[in-house]
Specification:
By secondary structure, the protein is an all-beta fold. The chain has a single domain, classed as Beta-galactosidase, Chain A, domain 5, CATH 2.70.98. The protein has no helices and 24 strands. The radius of gyration is 18 Å and the shape is globular.
């Protein structure tokens, strides 16, 4: 793994070549943040199988991001016949067991500086020609993830992207402060009281949990504050109005997942940013 480190935090970032045991068709391989460590307190984020050190690539852990090759209702997006492309992962196809896997990974050019890493790939296959540039920056207790996507084909590129951060639970529950004006339909897993999101019950296992949808206000910049077991808070900020925003949790983690429906014309590019701030220790 690669690392970024300052006096406060150490970030573990997956190497697309040597860390393939953790990588599959679901998440983007370049710039995949596997863990954020406080230099005194240890790991700060989790995953659906946490603390399993080798979770399945589909579940993963940390702060992954994904370019979806199909919608959640199984409509293919970047697929051509029996193969397709998972942007940022590589050529994908059906394996012998009927699952989808990466057949040929894309190649990443990686630049490592003192407090930042840049991952760049240009990938041409299955009728697609695109470039992804992902930059991960560490500044004090803040991590910034910036992604640029470029479409080089002569047709419109249509796909979906989403972030899937896995936040740690406190006392097996989550609590989040959401932007004013956020709404949430009645559901069995979570409740929204004013701007405060709480769990209705403690989830008991990896497969016990709940997924639902937040309706966020129209602002282009959104910030969410979450409680943390050993920090004063963890916050997530993103600079776009998501097409939808999922929330999901089980007994080990909680996630807020902003989605973007992306439509890129020929030679058009799009850039967006996520920012995570890891608060001070609860004793400090």
């Amino acid at each position: 793994m690669f690392t970024l480190k300052n006096s406060e935090l150490t970030i573990d970032v997956l190497d697309p070549i040597t860390d393939r045991i953790h990588l599959g068709p679901r998440f983007c391989w370049g710039g995949y943040i596997w863990q954020v460590n406080d230099n005194k307190l240890g790991p700060l984020i989790s995953g659906p199988e946490w603390p399993n050190p080798n979770p399945t690539p589909f579940n993963g852990q940390g702060l992954p991001e994904s370019f979806r090759y199909k919608t959640r209702d199984d409509k293919f997006l970047t697929w051509n016949g029996f193969t397709g492309v998972s942007l940022g992962a590589g050529e994908i196809g059906l394996l012998k067991d009927g699952s989808c896997g990466v057949i040929t990974p894309c190649v990443w050019n990686i630049t490592h500086e003192e407090c930042s890493m840049t991952f760049q790939t240009r990938h041409i296959l299955c009728g697609y020609d695109y470039e992804i540039i992902r930059k991960i920056e560490l500044n004090n207790r803040t991590i910034r993830s910036t992604t640029t996507l470029v479409n080089y084909i002569e047709n419109t590129l249509n796909l979906e992207w989403f972030a899937h951060p896995f936040f740690a639970l406190k006392n097996k529950q989550t609590y989040a402060e959401l932007p004013e004006g956020t709404t949430l339909a009645h559901n069995p897993g979570f409740d929204l009281i004013g701007t405060k999101l709480i769990q209705k019950r403690i989830f008991q296992s990896m497969t016990d949990g709940h997924l639902d949808y937040l309706n966020l206000p129209e602002e282009k910049t959104h910030k969410v504050n979450l409680m943390h077991p050993i920090l004063s808070h963890v916050s997530l900020m993103f600079n776009f109005k998501p097409s939808e925003c999922l929330i999901w949790g089980n007994n080990s983690t909680f996630s807020i997942e902003p989605y973007r429906v992306i439509t890129l014309n020929p030679n058009e590019s799009l850039t967006w940013t996520l920012e995570y701030n890891f608060g001070l220790t609860t004793s400090g």
